[in-house]
Amino acid sequence: EDAIRRKVPFTGAILVEDLDGLGWKDLKVEKLRFLGKLFEGRRHMVPQTCTKILIINAPMMFVRAWGLIKGWLVRPHTAALVEVTDSSKALAVLREYLDDQ
């Protein structure tokens, strides 16, 4: 919104997705369909505007699944942007890419 208001390209962003609390209860068909539609829209925008995509506080099942599927489910450029971590490493990863302010 700020980039649109200022009429400048939106680039160099770091997207942070916090999966704290995500569990098996959230993996229902209707929720997955909704997430699919959400990610489909972002698929066109995010890789061109983000320098990094941080998925933090991910359940261990998600971290392992990402490790298995990232090579064949997403484009190599996009996979290189994404870093998935569990809660034990979340703060360190955030501090690596973001200021404490």
Features:
globular; single chain; 3 strands; three-stranded parallel β-sheet; 101 residues; alpha/beta
List the SSEs and their pairings:
Blueprint: H1 2-6, E1 13-18, H2 29-49, E2 50-56, H3 60-73, H4 76-81, E3 82-84, H5 90-97
Parallel strand pairs: 1-2, 2-3
Compose a concise summary of this entry.
With 101 residues, this protein is α/β, with parallel strands linked by helices.
Structure, explained:
The protein has 101 residues and is of the alpha/beta class. The chain has helices at residues 2-6, 29-49, 60-73, 76-81, 90-97; strands at residues 13-18, 50-56, 82-84. The protein has a three-stranded parallel β-sheet with strand order 1-2-3. The protein is globular, with a radius of gyration of 15 Å.
